[in-house]
Amino acid sequence: MRCALLAVTLAGLPALALAQTQTTPSPAHSSATPPADAQASGADTLAGEGLTTGPLASAPEAAASAATEPQANTPTPAVSAPAGVAAPGINLSANGASQQEAPPAHAAATTPPASVAAPGVNANRGAAHPTPARAATEPANELERAFINAARQASARVAFRHTFLESQVALATVSADANAAPREIRLGPGGEACLIFTSDARATQIMGPNAPRQLMTGRQALERIRGAPLVIININMDPYLTLDTAGIEAFLAADSAPPATHSAGPSQ
Predict the structure, then answer these.
(1) Separation CA 66–CA 217 (nearest Å)
(2) Can you give the pTM of this predicted structure?
């Protein structure tokens, strides 16, 4: 089955990595580990949660090729994809098989690739393309503003989780059918990942207007892909967030209430 999802390291949650979107967790999937440069420690970061942000120019060079978007009414097998989002050294051969080159020491095979049509990348599977720079997120809604804040300061991550769980998001699916399975993208040897976007418009920006998706709350989306090895929120964007199986559970279980603001003065 397929799945879809961003990477800003959120402190306090268990390990968050890519997740597989499906109604029933599939034991067949192997667990994935969030990329080394997307991990962080501290009271504000959950285990399995990887939040990545930074200057667009910092994205490592890599060969990337875009996957053709699935037809709205026809289930499409998972697409093998290379590094579109800070995933160096993964190329797509002419026959569609992913091949691993020697990546920089800081990169991991599970770093989210461009398996959905990344901006600036042509869908030519027989040729290598320069890795497109991740598009900087210009916040268009409350969720994206909270996302940006969480990427900039760890103290804003609890509020972001709360906002995400209550906000409408777009879950990439294999078709436009109401009960369609979550779409999954192949991360080379790193397994597969589901995709979630912070709005319908953001899903269109990254996957294209005809790529199927379902709109629901962030909580519903994470519950639907429960058991998936990895989920990427806002792939090909800066910032993006990855959650692994444990990270999804931690995100759902974390205190959803924003931290209270305490007054420095004496209580009345």
Answers:
(1) 28
(2) 0.55
